[in-house]
Every structure is written in C-alpha cells, then in structure tokens.
Design goal:
Elements lengths: L28 H8 L6 E6 L8 H14 L3 E6 L5 H10 L6 E5 L6 H7 L2 E4 L10 H8 L4 E4 L4 H4 L6 E4 L4 H13 L1 H14 L5 H16 L1
Parallel strand pairs: 1-2, 1-4, 2-3, 4-5, 5-6
Helix pairs in contact: 1-4, 2-3, 2-7, 5-8
Length: about 220
C-alpha cells in the first residue's frame, strides 16, 4: 500500500490462516479420484476459484494447448463458477483442446480436500496485482501440491520460486506452459516442492495466527 510506506516501523503483518486438519484425508490420490470421477491415469492440473477475468484463465487455457502437445495425458480441472465460463469453453473448443478440460462447477467446502489430493499441480495464473494472498495457495500447500503461479501481488509471500512452486510472469502463456511441463516431467521435483509446501504451511495454522494476534495486542497494550 502506497499509503503505508511512511509507517513501516508501525506495521505488523499477520496473514490469513488455514484449518490444517480439514485437509488431512485418510484417502489415497487414487481413492479421491475415484470418488470424484476423475481419470486415474492422467496428470491432473487443478485450478480452484472464481472463473473471473483477473484470474488469467484464458492464459491458462492457451498454455494447456502447449502442455498437451508435450504431455498428451494431462487434464485441466477448473473448479468454480463465474462469468468467464462460456468464453473459456469457446476458447478451448477453438483450440481443439476441449476434451482435455473439465469444468467441475461450484465445489462444496467438504469436497475441496478431495480435489486437491486428486491433483498433481495447482495453478493460479492471476493477472492483476489485486491478488493479495490467495487462500487457495495455502490449501494447495497443506495438500502437498506444488504450485505454479503468477509473480504478482501477494502471491510470492506464499509461493517461493524453486522451493514450493514456480513463479512466472503474468499474462505469459508460454512461461506458464513451460513451468507446468517442467513439473509434470520431473516427479522428484514435484514431490520435493509438495513436501516443502506442506512444511511451510504449518506456520499458517489458525493456532499460530491466534498466537501472533495475541502477541500484537500485548505489544500495543504495553
């Protein structure tokens, strides 16, 4: 915020948190896919959020055309609703990749963990700096997923390039495709980034956030 630049010494940042236990499922990836009717032998690339223009989903669909040429057993699952849905369907049809896209629609909170655990990669290709944090990134991290996201807004606070995911320039379908392909071709790196994300997310438990909030109140009162 440009309004806060002169007050850095007075700022304490306490992020949003996540209920980690909600994502600890006693099910395997295969069992989750079976419950959701997802293909058992494909690479699943997951997006979860509003199907809105600023999420950069047209960039993701264009990237998928390049991904599929290199990795034909990949599928993009889009979870969410929004005004862009019809346009995205038309774009995928125009690019002849509609069979590689699945529109899952609105996802109930109880089903979210199943979708995350079913996936191989989580993607957040946002195009506007108003993408301030991204709770979905926390949800992907707690589920052990590597993340491919735009280097924009508050996203780099959570997604550390090369550690728990890959950051790419916004609106760059080529870079987005290359990052997805790189992770799909390197299982060991996917697993390492997934483990790093799972470890990193521990600091975002609501218990930890509550402690930080209490510390801040006590500091102010003192």
């Amino acid at each position: 915020s440009r309004f806060l630049r002169g007050y850095q010494d007075k700022i304490i940042v306490i992020p949003n948190g996540i209920n980690i236990k909600d994502f600890d499922l006693p099910l395997s990836k295969e069992e989750c896919r079976e419950k959701l009717g997802l293909p058992p032998n494909k690479y699943i690339i997951l997006f979860l959020g509003a199907l809105s223009p600023y999420k950069g989903l047209d960039i993701l669909v264009k990237a998928m055309q390049k991904v599929i040429k290199k990795i034909p057993n990949a599928e993009l699952v889009l979870c969410g609703e929004g005004g862009l849905k019809t346009e995205l369907k038309e774009l995928s049809n125009k690019l002849n990749i509609d069979e590689y896209l699945a529109f899952a629609g609105f996802i109930d909170e109880k089903l979210k963990p199943l979708y995350y655990k079913s996936a191989d990669i989580f993607v957040l290709p946002s195009t506007m700096s108003t993408e301030s944090f991204g709770i979905v990134n926390l949800e992907a991290m707690v589920s052990g997923l590597p993340i491919v996201a735009s280097r924009i807004g508050g996203v780099p606070d959570l997604v550390k390039d090369g550690e728990n995911g890959l950051l790419v320039p916004p609106k760059d379908s080529e870079a987005l495709a290359e990052a997805i392909i790189y992770l799909l071709e390197n299982e060991d790196i996917r697993e390492r980034m997934g483990r790093n994300g799972r470890q990193r997310v521990e600091r975002y438990s609501w218990e930890k956030i509550a402690e930080e909030t209490e510390k801040m109140y006590r500091r102010v009162l003192a």
